Amino acid sequence: MYCTEVMVKQHANISRMLKVIEKACCAVLDGSPIDCNEFTEILKFIRTYADGHHHRREELVLFPEMVQHLEKIASVIINHGMLVEHDLIRAHVRALDDALKNYQAHPDTLYKLQILTEAMAYVNRLQAHVDKENTVVYPMADRSLPAEIKEKIDAAVHNMEKEEGQDFAAPYLSLLERLEHKYHIA
Predict the structure, then answer these.
(1) Tell me, what's the pLDDT at 186?
(2) Where do the TM regions start and end (predicted)?
């Protein structure tokens, strides 16, 4: 199914950013200062690419069709698993943003600790979430959804891509490559 192939590719990019965040946090622990501009760019990637671009496809297209057309287990996995995890992930992003703003106003060790704590909580929770979607949720959709529903989902994802524009992801992938280069991530 085109939709899940696209989402797995988006997950690969998101996982690459998770490695960047991990390296940025380790650099701070090793004595580098908090780079507030870099963390702000990372937050923009998270909010626009990972959440607004990727999670939007899941929440508005794939997940509702799975809940409607698959057995009750799909509803439980989606409504009590994936969507709850999306909300928990967003809570880490809000807390990271708050900690970063507090640190910019008052560069205190407590705010530095909160930045590192929320950033790593985000990394750990989202990577586990990505792994579940790639190994359980998407294969369930590919295997179990009727062909006409798959076509409907794929058409909706194509329309979302058309609305966003062909070059939507380019600045986020460019940022990702720049940060991977900075942190020597192959």
Answers:
(1) 83
(2) none
